[in-house]
Amino acid sequence: MTNNYAVPDALAPDLIITNGKVITVDKEFSFAEAVAVKDGKIAAVGSSDEIEALRGAPTKTLHLDGKTLIPGINDSHIYITLGINSMPPGFFDVSPAVVSSIDDMREIIKKAVAGAKPGQWINGGGWNQGVIKELVEDLSRSLCKEDFDDISPDNPIFLTEFSYHTGIVNSAALKAAGIDRDTPDPEDGTIVRDADGEPTGLLMEKATTLITNIQPQPSYEELREIFELNITELTKYGVTSVTSANDRPYDISFYSNLYRDYAAEGKPFPVRISSLMLWAESYIGGDYDSIEEAFNWVGTTTGFGDDFLRIAGVKVFADGIPPQKTAWSSIPYEDGTHGSLILAGKDDEEKVAHLNKIVDFCHAHGCQVGFHTCGDLAVKETVKAMARVKEADPKDLRHYVIHGDWVMSESMELMAKYDIPITTQSELLYYIGDDTTKRLGSEIAGNQWPLKEMIDKGVRVYNGSDWPAAPADWRRGLQTSITRKTIGGIVCGTHQALNMEEALRAYTKDPAWLDYMEDRKGSIEAGMYADFAVLGEDLIEIDPDDIESIPVHMSIVGGKVVYDDGVLQIK
Ligand SMILES: [Zn+2]
Predict the structure, then answer these.
(1) Rg of the chain's alpha carbons, rounded to an integer?
(2) How far is the CA of 499 from the centre of ligand 1 (A)?
(3) Is 407 helix (H, G, I), strand (E, B) or coil?
(4) 568 with 64: CB under 8 angstroms?
(5) Does residue 185 lie within any of the structural domains?
(6) Are 253 and 189 in the same domain?
(7) CATH number, position 292
(8) Is residue 522 part of a domain?
(9) How confident is the model at residue 481, as a pLDDT?
(10) Last residue of some domain: 181, 212, 243?
(11) Are both 32 and 162 inside the same structural domain?
(12) Centre of ligand 1 from the C-alpha of residue 403, in Å
């Protein structure tokens, strides 16, 4: 066959993206103007003229018109099914975006009750005690069932705190779950009670599972509908890869069915998923017995799957979170407590032994493990355990720390030495930095999420949103990692601020290592997957305070457009 092009059709790129600013995030952090894409991968990167010369008859064009192309965002810590279920139609937002008082919450719930069937559960969440007026004015006051009983006497209500570690329910929900004054606290959870021993409606840590375990689960068809409606919460930001960090068998079965059906229907899968499995009876958990039992039945370990849907490993919650004073921290909370590990054990020593047993088991079975650890003591023991197994048996298992609100220098040194990464959350600093400052002072808030110190010490530092604990908006996370500014406008510890290159690497190239995919995703270089985000502004030139408002025009995964705001066209 002949045509006017120098390049034979079979060799021609499927797509060329030209006339833009391409931030490649390669080793040199170099810039280019254009990219050629073939078979889902990047075939070439260069000037617009160089790439134009590769055009063949079948080649389509995305003319960037001076806009910016970056590697697709890799959000290294989210919860997919929790995220998609944490949005309308089945979920009512009571986050700081819409709520600043209990009255605001009541208004939202009143409307929800009016639209609900008799007895139907009303789920919602996102509340943050740090910005609810009545709770800020009186630090001893908490949300309680009476805040909602009069407006919803019959419909059970379950409203999770933004972190999902705490929930508030009304009396109808307590009744539906059979929780009363005689119900014992579950291990590592608290049914908060009043002076008379009556449950107040506040459920902490694993006590929330008394509710989540009895709530009905949507069917595959219902969940697929919710997924397709709400996965845009990732794609609209240009997120192309995620680690989903709390996947129960139900979730993994959902992804598997969905992936198979999309392949059969010829639909592009919208995001690359690495799944950290939660082998626990409760939603916040993970313990040795259930992990061992699961391995006895299912041998699936790290790396199973393909580059769109793969098993990463196992997720374990080691401790709680600082706003609830449940993270195990050497820094005392305002009431003098230090939190603790939430793993089973009668004291710290037993809990630490439990943690070590899990790390030993996962390492021996070829399974990456990611530990939720917020407090510095939890981080310290987790890192010590990981370093110990890697020293004894140095195989390439990339165990890692999740969150690390506070990290001691000695832990950072071990993390650097033993290649133990951390996925951390700058975006959460934006939301809770004010609360931390108020409760614990500016020095402690200034060292919360010490990204700069860790990077300088040689730790592999990745960023992620913790969606739905915060929006999957890397722009705000990236901005906060550079400015350290909170929602209230406080600057928390400029000495922990990153520069743009460090900040962008932590959201793109660097976390590919966590997925053993550093040779094929995360940067714009020949041979890498064609995963991109198209931005309306130049990330390099923009004032850091304006990063959060940069338009995202397109999200492209494996060369296929999965989100498009209509501003640019492929022709
Ligand atoms: Zn998390």
Answers:
(1) 24
(2) 25
(3) coil
(4) yes
(5) yes
(6) no
(7) 3.20.20.140
(8) no
(9) 98
(10) 212
(11) no
(12) 7
CA 162–ligand 1 middle distance (angstroms)? 11
**What total of structural domains would you count in the chain?**
3
Report the separation in Å between the CA atom of 401 and the middle of ligand 1, taken as the mean of its atom positions.
Answer: 11
CA 77 – ligand 1 centroid, Å: 7
CA of 34 to the centre of ligand 1 (A): 36
H or E segment to which residue 343 belongs = none
Measure 168 CA to ligand 1 centroid, in angstroms.
Answer: 19
Q: How far is the CA of 482 from the centre of ligand 1 (A)?
A: 21
**One domain, residues 312 and 387:** yes
Residues 262 and 349 placed together within one structural domain of the fold:
yes
Say how many Å lie between the CA of residue 423 and the centre of ligand 1: 9
Q: Considering the entire predicted model, what is its pTM?
A: 0.88
91 inside domain: yes
In a domain, 78, yes or no: no
| Per-run averaged pLDDT (10 residues), the chain, 571 residues | 73 97 98 98 98 96 98 97 86 92 96 90 92 91 96 96 90 96 91 96 93 88 93 97 92 95 96 92 76 86 93 94 91 93 93 97 95 97 98 96 97 98 95 92 95 98 94 97 96 97 98 97 98 97 97 98 96 95
Going from the Cα of 163 to the center of ligand 1, the distance in angstroms, rounded, reads 8
340 vs 347: CA distance, rounded Å: 9
3-class state of residue 415 by DSSP = helix
CATH number of the domain encompassing residue 540: 2.30.40.10
Whether residues 30 and 106 fall in one domain:
no
**Cα of 424 from ligand 1 centre, angstroms:** 9
Domain ranges, residue 17: 9-72+528-564
Chain Cα centroid distance, residue 430: 15
Look up the CATH number of the domain holding residue 92. 3.10.310.70
Question: What is the whole-number distance in angstroms between the Cα of residue 171 and the centre of ligand 1?
Answer: 29
Same domain, 299 and 433: yes
Distance CA 386, CA 397 (A): 10
Question: CA 301, CA 311: separation in Å to the nearest integer?
Answer: 7
85 CA from centroid of ligand 1 (Å): 16
The answer on 129 and 33 residing in a single domain is no
3-state secondary structure 422-457: EEECHHHHHHHHHHHHHHHCHHHHHCCCCHHHHHHC
**Centroid of ligand 1 to alpha carbon of 496 (angstroms):** 21
Distance between Cα 525 and ligand 1 center (Å):
31
Same domain, 250 and 279: yes
* Residue 296 confidence (pLDDT): 86
DSSP state of 380: H
